[in-house]
Write a structure and sequence with these properties.
This protein has one domain (6-202): Alpha-Beta Complex (Spore Coat Polysaccharide Biosynthesis Protein SpsA, Chain A), CATH 3.90.550. Helices cover 29% and strands 21% of the residues. Helix 1 packs across helix 3 and helix 2 packs antiparallel against helix 4 (145-153). It is of the alpha/beta class and 203 residues long.
């Protein structure tokens, strides 16, 4: 188990789902609870950025909650800036919409990081067969903050431009783990995630 903080971004507006995506049940369990449980199997430190702690948050999922003080609808950049400025140390950043993610994949990401890189971002093969980066399965260090500040000041919402920076390491996710990067953004991907989880329970 790692002691590196794992940060889950949970402040998105979930426009495609039409509901609070983080709290959306996947196979009967709120998605953010699934991600939190996975994170706590990989690290002893969990931070959730983007909302206040819910009154009914499970006691068995200890987490620090941070309201994203810089968020003006600017996407995940503001949440990452908030986390890096508050924690002042390297961290793993996760979205709240990957319910298939396992602790092993998080630990492999941490092990892949090499200084002097300012970040390590997962990359996998998309459904169409070309490489696709996943900046919300990544390790970021405080050294990336100047670049994030420039991106935010220019109106950027996405972290995708970081994948082109030479100081950012791209980590190829092993083929046996790539299905874990399924993002639940709409009813179709929700159904795919639930089918996969059901199949896992049967094996």
């Amino acid at each position: 188990m790692s002691t590196m903080p794992i940060v889950i971004l949970a402040g998105g507006r979930s426009t495609r789902m039409g509901a609070d995506k983080a709290m959306l049940p996947v196979a009967g369990v709120p998605m953010i609870h699934r991600i939190a449980e996975t994170a706590l199997e990989a690290s002893s430190r969990l931070v959730i950025v983007g909302r206040e702690k819910p009154a009914d948050w499970p006691e068995h999922l200890p987490a620090t909650f941070m309201v994203d003080s810089t968020d003006t609808g600017g996407g995940p950049i503001s949440g990452l800036i908030t986390a890096l400025e508050s924690l002042e140390e390297p961290l793993v950043l996760l979205g709240c919409d990957m319910p298939l993610l396992t602790p092993d994949t998080i630990l492999l990401l941490i092990a892949a990081h090499r200084p002097p890189h300012v970040a390590t971002i997962a990359i996998a093969t998309s459904d169409k067969g070309f490489p696709q980066a996943e900046p919300l399965l990544a390790l970021y260090t405080p050294s990336v903050l100047p670049e994030l500040d420039v991106m935010q000041a220019s109106g950027r919402r996405s972290l995708q431009p970081l994948i082109h920076r030479p100081e950012v390491l791209m980590w190829p996710v092993p083929a046996t783990h790539q299905h874990e990067l399924l993002n639940v953004n709409d009813p179709e991907t929700l159904a795919q995630a639930e089918a996969r989880l059901a199949a896992q329970r049967e094996t």
